[in-house]
Structures are given as C-alpha cells and as structure tokens.
Amino acid sequence: MALAQTWNATxxxxxxxxxxxxxxSNLAAVERNGATVITRGDGVYxxxxxxxxxxxxxxxxxxxxxxxGRTALAEAAAAQIQDLDFAPTFFGLSNVPAIELSAKxxxxxxxxxxxxxxxxxxxxxxxxxxxxxxxxWWLKGQGGxxxxxxxxxxxxxxxxxxLAATGIPAYHxxxxxxxxxxxxxxxxYAYRNAEGLSEDEFIAMLVKELxxxxxxxxxxxxAAMIGEPVQGAGGVVVPPDRYWDAIVPVLKAxxxxxxxxxxxxxxxxxxxxxxxxxxxQVSDIVSFAKGITSGYIPLGGVxxxxxxxxxxxxxxRMFMHGFTYSGHPVACAVALPNIRIxxxxxxxxxxKWAGAYLLGRLHDLLDDHPNVGNVRGKGLMLLVEIVxxxxxxxxxxxxxxxxxxxxxxxxxxxxxxxxxxxxxAIAPPLIVTQEHLDTIAEGVxxxxxxxxx
Length: 453
Ligand SMILES: Cc1ncc(COP(=O)(O)O)c(C=O)c1O
Hints:
CATH architecture of the largest domain: 3-Layer(aba) Sandwich
Distance between the termini: 44 Å
Radius of gyration: 22 Å
Largest sheet: 7 strands, mixed
Structural class: alpha/beta
Number of strands: 15
CATH superfamily of the largest domain: Type I PLP-dependent aspartate aminotransferase-like (Major domain)
Number of helices: 16
CATH class of the largest domain: Alpha Beta
Bound molecules: pyridoxal-5'-phosphate
C-alpha cells in the first residue's frame, strides 16, 4: 500500500540541503544543486520527489538484487517485529530467524563454510573477518601473524580496518594516519596493468609479486589476504578466469588465510550465487552484506570454515567481538524470503544471461567511440571506462568533472548509475529483462556521447 503523499518536493530538497551530510557525494555540489530525493520504488524503477521515473541501473548500491517493492519482505519484517522486535546474540542468547538464516547459509556456501556471525553491513563484516583471522592465529599460538594483504583498487568499506585494506587512494585522503599492517598488491586489472603481456604472463606477474611480498614481509607475520572475487567500487576489475586458481595455492603454501569479500558479488550478482563459485575457489572466511536482504534492511555477516569455527569454539574464554545488531531478528527474518526469491526465480542465472547481453550491447554501441577505452563486466557488474585518447589511455582532467557530468547526463536519460572520473558503473537488479537492458545500454551510450562529444 503506497503512503499518502504529504510532502512538497521543493521543501524536501531545502531541508535536505540544510540538515543532511551525504556520503560519497561532492558536498559543495549537493549544496549547489540540491539532492535528488527518491520517494518510491517498484521492480527496476524508482521515482524522485518531482515525479521523474528512472531505471535503478545501480540497484541502489549494487544491493537491491530482487528489485524494489517485494511484498514478501515487507510482510516478513512486520510479522517478525510483532513476534520479537529485538534480542541480542550476546551472552549465549539466540533467536529463531538468526538460527534459521545461519543454517540456510550453510547449505548455500560451499563446504567447509558452515558457521556464521552477523553484522549490519559490509564494513562491519570485513572488520569481523579481519579480527577473526588474527584471533584464529592468536589462539593457534601464532600471535605474530597479524598483517593483511589486499589489493589496489580493492574496496572493503570505510571503518578503520576495512579502510586500511581498501586500495583506493581517494578514500584515505584527509583521514590519516592509516591503521598499520596492511600491504596492497597490484590489481588484476588487465586494461592498464597487463600492457604487452599475455593472460598467462599477467597472472604469473601477479603471482610473483605475491610470492615476493610474502618473502619480504615474512609468512609468519601475515594473517590473511582479503579480496573481492570481482573488484567493484575500485572500477569493476574482472580478474582473468585463472587468477584466483593461481593465487590460492600460494596463500595455502604459506599458511595465509583467504578472505573473500562477497559484499557485492554475493547472492547472485556475478552469475553464480557467490562470486567465489564463478572462480571455482573457496575461502577460509567470507564476508557478505548488501544482497543478503537486497538492501531492504541492513544486514551483513561473515562465514568461516569448520577449522576456524572449531578453533574459536574450542577456546573456553569470551569471544570479545560482535555488534549490538549481530543477528538482528528482523533483519534475519527479511533475509530468508529474499534468499527464497533469489533461488526460486533463479536470479544468479538471470544475472549471467543479462550481464552477457548488456556487455554485448555496450560493446556494440560504444566500442567505436573514440573516448571509450574499455567496456568490461561479469554478470551484472559492468563498467564503461572513459579516456581522452584510446592510444595513451589518458584519463580526463579532474577539473573536467567527468563523474559529475556523466551522473547528470544519465539521470537526464532516465538512468541511475554510478558516474565517476573513470566512467560509468552499471549494476541493475538481477530481475532485469531484455527491454530494460536495451534502455540502459542506449541511455549509457547517449550519455557518453553527450558528455564526450
Ligand atoms: C566489496 C565491498 N566490501 C565492503 C563494502 C562496505 O559495505 P558497507 O557500505 O555496507 O559498510 C562495500 C560497499 O560498497 C563493498 O562494495
């Protein structure tokens, strides 16, 4: 049931301007231009306060996997609030939805990932994953294993530990000093990092860098490597198919845990239920969030291998980590029907088909454009990379404000995407149809031409 409209668009924008501080926004630009206030969602569409309709071609923030307006999720939240609004999972307490969700996740993740702790989002999940990795080694009598390997262009969230793992310089500016103990490796970003190399040579180069880093830092000082199966916010970096197959044995040989950050990839987006399945690998620890509730309510968590869970549970002492909302009954109750929809509607398979179709359409429409350097994607994570010159791959001058211009042009063309100074990131809900995909591809191509000529 839609709520009666009680607001006035101009007033809302003015109140937003006066009282809101927007994340990941140019605050001065929001002050100047006013926010786009979103008031309603249905399927792949959202509407702003002025009545304009957009295709939500970024799924909120890569998270509204089942699309907007699913009644089953609203009903699950309402029913759970009436039964039990909140109970913690601290002090040995538990609740029915958190138990049901853990058991369900154990059937979904590949073995041996069977044990879970919940959080409220991605950064909290990565903090938890990193702390569990350190704690595991500490319990094993190897408390010197504390360092974390991550990658440039990797994004793991803005809390201090997750931020330290994040390899995108802009997120660090003005927020120093950084948490020590984090080492950033080269991203498997073929467009710029594999110049003149075959795929095998590129992978060999990345493996060699990993081996040299481990030798330099000392395997007995490294707890874990954290990585997104496909890097999202850093620029949709799709690694070569055999990349993870080459990285994982090096980590195993050196007793370094692998943490897959499935915050974007998880729950269908890459064309498999989990990104790790798209690469045929299993990590020791996995972090997730976003798609587990399709963003309807905040929820994240970590899964861990039986070996790690047994080590933690074998210690007869307090485990001093967790959040007030770890295992929130309402959030877990919403996750269950969300996962049912993802499974029943076979959304990972749709993401695979739709991603391949959209990638093909974007190639058709944009490959000949002189400013489109690279079009790439896996499942429904895609990016159109803009350059000033295809030969030199030079980026636009920051003063040109490519991101701002692309954002404005795509909105004018009825699309919400993520415009950045690299180009346009696209990640529609996993329910998209061919008709939506054609509209997205044409809107993106038109916007690139409008901005770049
Ligand atoms: C791969 C990845 N990890 C972690 C996060 C952080 O999640 P949150 O914003 O929920 O803290 C994000 C958010 O975009 C993400 O893309």
